[in-house]
Write a structure and sequence with these properties.
The complex is a heterodimer of chains A (411) and B (536). With 411 residues, chain A is an alpha/beta fold. Chain A has 16 helices and 15 strands. Helix content of chain A is 45%, strand content 17%. Chain A is globular, with a radius of gyration of 24 Å. Chain B is extended, with a radius of gyration of 37 Å. The chains are: A alpha/beta (411), B alpha+beta (536). At the A-B interface, helix 1, helix 3, helix 4, helix 11 and helix 15 of A face helix 1, helix 2, helix 3, helix 4 and helix 5 of B.
Chain lengths: 411, 536
């Protein structure tokens, strides 16, 4: 009578022991695979979109160099955190895909190592190399550049607006639900509102001579910033920047023809095209006296600080990912302009890519310094409060700048 | 003719009985279960053996010991006759060990470290990363063509400068010009007495070759050649020098000396820290920080109060509504009870986090169904006003949670014998008195433990908070990223994972505080429940 239940129990015990066994394996188990002689394997973290393209690149690279490439698919949103956590344990990859504004965090945590692009550095767009640099060192091989611009529904607005007021006027004349759309959201969206802010002459940080950001020079609270805050309050009162319009709603309303304008990036182009909207891409109209500069985001590949295959990894990145063909292939999957100048020129045959690129050429790289974290923490909520009229805009803005400064000093 | 004494007879009977029992035991089991049992334990042992082997090769002796003990216990328990309770308990205990004790122990360990952004590895790694990133290419220095040479297991760089000069050098000897190198296309590719490595060879020894620094002259301040790809070399100069004996980092540009002052990072005399640092044991610092630092203590206090209010209100409202509906639908006079019951249970069939997400859409101020349709287009800030957001959270949780309470109350009500009600009615009790004095106490005996677990669940109801409001609305003036509807667990999440800097140490300390609070509440409540049982 005791025997009957045993198999089930034993199964449970077995699973438990297996779980233990796995924990045993995982503690440093992956180290020695790469140490075996003659079979260099590069582990590359890549997101689902880019994986198919890189699969072909990896196959070609394997044939030519004899280096195996193992692609591991990751959720793009989780790569930054996992990379920071896993590299120190020795379990991380040799190479990972990533955005340039993760770099400050990566360097602070010591998980990436500099890459020497040598003379090929000049083949990339300047903004891409600046974005991938930190403290005078280049850390990544860029492959794409992205930024926001003004998407226009040519049916509702046949001409490009010449100024912000012009855009609002055209939008109002079109008689649609919204004169123009930009994603704001409950905690606001400083990224999408940044072109407006820069047109008042209020960048977040000042820059050094080499174009990198100077974390000691917080500019956001300057006179231009206060002017921008007052402007935000006016727009909020006029109902032009509702905080209830988040990314999904903005896209949906534009796609269904409820507004002639949408300030967005290339990622929403295909949805609009699929809905049969005739699109044009224009520069973002400036409400202030200076140019409206959007943030430019750059994506690229980083090498882990703990990679044991540095030479092979560098070879893959500089001699394969950095080539025109691969950059063009990667462009096709995401519609984000290639970072390599030659590839970009070819991709510019598409008027939308060319137009986004033109707006981006006027943009500024998103700061990659870790101090930016303190900025994000206060920036959006303050903007949302100003838009919703929760106090004097100038006071709120100045208080925000003070909070950011003290958060930076405290770190 | 019986010559046997009573004693011997009873001894024989005993023996026979024992044999009979053994036969019965075997007969009841059969041969197949025994084979399955042996096979399964064989699998366990095989996996354990593999785990032991892996642990041994990696020098993980703690894992080794744990696996060994567990494997031994499993074998002993299942091969030994008897020990029936152990046979049932062992798997559960092992799971408890792995998934509860280990997790809590590890969280506890992290809570005493400064693990987080900038402190996520060992000192060794930090030194390596600092030295690595301090290697700067000398501005405007040329790229050298490179061939890696090998001689008796030592590697050398054979470099061709852009002006055509060919030189050779290795880790210990600076570059010196050589003549008579084998040239190909203007690049030196070989030298007598050395073997030239091709790309495959270079890859095979890439670790050593990538680590090589070849000084360009006798003066180390002129910089050294390194190669990132095995075919080009560049001139680098380091801005940081690590003195292994003193354990200090020196900035060669400014002369600042950074030393290990026990804070987990190289620190200069003026207090400036070099990042990355490394993780160290900080003792109780995270706990004292949670209770003493004004910017954390304030939010922690208000979040703790709201967590209790939220959990209590959630339990009370769902229980009240669930009980009310259970009583209503338990009434025989009610028509179509079955249909109503099914409708009532629908929210329970919905995944909770999805439900919360849908509600977030419904409650949108400008485009939500609630404002648009139910309130005729009014712009009520359900999720963006501090108090309305708190109300919305409780409301949505009521919607999500009442079906469960309805189910358990229905079950408990039906198990109360009708005779009790009848007897009370005969004694002249009014319906409400019957409910208050008889049904409710009896109900509470069986429901109270469920209420306690519902409280514990809502105390950590991360899904609801995150999907509905993400803890917002936030007060822009507050110094920390915590909103009006954040509960402890969502605050822990934000400290650990949200925003630019993660502080796993502090988050673990918070987790332990939550663990203690929930345990205390549970212990006290279960003690109270005992007194309820005495009512019977």
């Amino acid at each position: 009578m005791t025997v009957k239940k045993n198999p089930i129990l034993a199964l449970g015990a077995m699973t438990a022991v297996a779980a233990l066994a796995l924990t045993g394996c995982s503690s440093g188990g992956s180290d020695d695979a790469s140490e075996k002689e003659g079979s260099t394997t590069l582990t590359v973290w890549v997101d689902a979109d880019r994986a198919p393209v890189l699969k072909d690149v990896a196959a070609a690279f394997e044939d030519e160099s004899g280096i195996n490439v193992k692609l591991v698919q990751k959720d793009f949103g989780k790569i930054q955190e996992q990379f920071v956590q896993q590299v120190p344990t020795g379990k991380g990859p040799d190479i990972t895909i990533g955005a340039h504004d993760w770099l400050g965090d990566f360097v602070t945590n010591g998980v990436v190592q500099p890459i020497e692009l040598g003379d090929t550095a000049s083949d990339f767009q300047d903004v891409a190399i600046t974005a991938m640099s930190y403290d005078g060192q280049t850390y990544g091989v860029p492959y794409s550049i992205e930024n926001i611009a003004l998407l226009r529904n040519t049916e509702l607005a046949p001409e490009a607006p010449t100024s912000y007021d012009d855009m609002v006027q055209m939008g109002t004349d079109a008689g649609t639900e919204f004169p123009f759309l930009v994603q704001v959201g409950e905690e606001s969206d400083p990224y999408h509102l940044y072109p407006f802010q820069t047109s008042f002459g209020a960048p977040v940080f000042g820059t050094n001579e080499d174009g990198s950001y100077n974390s000691d020079d917080l500019q956001i609270g300057n006179d231009g910033g206060i002017e921008f805050a007052n402007w935000l309050a006016e727009q909020g009162a006029a109902g032009l920047l509702p905080t209830t319009v988040d990314g999904d709603i903005a896209k949906e309303k534009f796609v269904s023809g409820d507004s002639p304008f949408l300030i967005t990036g290339p990622w929403n182009v295909s949805a609009a095209e699929e809905a049969g909207i005739d699109l044009a891409v224009d520069p973002i109209p400036a409400p202030g006296s200076e140019a409206a500069q959007p943030f430019v985001g750059v994506q690229g590949f980083y090498i882990s600080a703990k990679s044991k295959n540095v030479l092979a990894a560098t070879e893959l990145l500089t001699n394969y990912i950095g080539t025109k063909d691969v950059q063009l292939e990667l462009y096709k999957v995401g519609n984000r302009a290639p970072a390599l100048t030659a590839a970009f020129e070819e991709a510019s045959a598409d008027p939308i890519t060319a137009a986004f690129g033109e707006v981006g050429a006027n943009g500024v790289p998103m700061p990659n310094i870790p101090e930016m974290g303190a900025v994000w923490q206060y920036w959006g909520v303050t903007e949302a409060d100003i838009i919703n009229g929760k106090g004097d805009p100038a006071e709120l803005w100045t208080a925000m700048a003070d909070e950011i400064q003290s958060a930076i000093d405290g770190e | 003719m019986s010559t046997q004494t009573p004693q011997t007879r009873s001894a024989r009977e005993l023996r026979q009985r024992r044999r009979a029992r053994q036969i019965a035991e075997h007969a009841s089991g059969g041969i197949l279960p025994i084979i399955i049992k042996i096979a399964l334990i064989a699998v366990v042992d095989a996996i354990s053996l593999f785990a032991l082997f892996v642990a041994m090769t990696h020098g993980q002796w703690i894992v080794f010991a744990v696996v060994l003990v567990i494997a031994a216990v499993v074998n002993l328990v299942y091969f030994k006759r008897g020990w029936l309770p152990a046979k049932y308990l062992t798997p559960g205990l092992i799971f408890l060990l792995i998934f509860q004790v280990f997790v809590i122990g590890y969280t506890g360990y992290i809570a005493f470290t400064n693990y987080g952004t900038g402190h996520n590895s060992t000192k060794e790694d930090a030194v390596m990363a600092l030295v690595q990133s301090a290697q700067e290419r000398v501005p405007d220095s040329p790229a050298y063509d490179l061939t890696v040479l090998e001689q008796l297991g030592n590697y050398s760089f054979l470099v061709t400068a852009p002006d055509g000069t060919v030189s050779v050098g290795d880790d210990s000897t600076p570059l010196s010009t050589v003549s008579g190198a084998e040239m190909s296309g203007g690049v030196a590719v070989g030298l007598t007495g050395y073997t030239s490595l091709d790309f495959a060879d270079v890859l095979e020894h890439q670790k050593e070759i990538a680590a090589m620094t070849v000084q360009i002259s006798d003066d180390p301040n002129d910089g050294a050649l390194r190669t990132p790809d095995g075919s080009k070399a560049y001139l680098y100069i380091s801005t940081l020098e690590y003195d292994e004996a003193a354990g200090t980092m020196t900035d060669t540009k400014t002369g600042t000396v950074y030393s290990d002052t026990g804070v987990g990072a190289f620190t200069s005399e003026s207090g400036e820290q070099l990042m990355p640092g490394w993780s160290i044991n900080v003792g109780l610092e995270n706990f004292t920080k949670a209770f003493t630092e004004q910017s954390i203590r304030g939010p922690l206090l208000s979040v703790t109060i709201w967590t209790f209010v939220f959990a209590l209100l959630s339990v009370l409202t769902t229980f009240a509504l669930g009980l009310f509906l259970a009583i209503v639908f338990n009434d025989m006079r009610m028509k179509g009870r079955k249909l109503y019951r099914v409708v009532m249970i629908l929210p329970y069939a919905f995944p909770g986090f999805l439900g919360a997400l849908v509600w977030a859409g419904l409650l949108n101020r400008d485009f939500g169904f609630v404002n648009d349709v139910l309130f005729g287009g009014a712009a009520i800030p359900w999720l963006t006003n501090e108090w309305l957001a708190k109300f919305s959270i409780v409301w949505v949780n009521l919607w999500l949670g009442f079906p469960y309470m309805f189910l358990v109350c229905t079950g408990a009500l039906q198990s109360i014998p009708d005779e009790l009600t009848e007897a009370a009615t005969v004694d002249g009790a009014k319906p409400f008195a019957v409910f208050r004095l008889i049904k409710l106490p009896l109900l509470l005996v069986s429901i109270a433990p469920l209420l306690i677990s519902a409280f514990a669940f809502n105390f950590n109801n991360f899904n609801l908070i995150y999907m509905l409001t993400q803890g917002g609305p936030r007060d822009a003036g507050a110094g920390i990223n915590v909103g009006a509807t954040d509960i402890l667990i969502s605050m822990v999440y934000k400290v650990a994972f949200d925003g630019a800097t993660s502080d796993y140490g502090l988050a673990s300390a918070f987790s332990l505080i939550i663990f203690v609070v929930v345990s205390l509440v549970a212990i006290i409540s279960f003690k109270q429940t005992k007194s309820l049982e005495d009512l019977n």
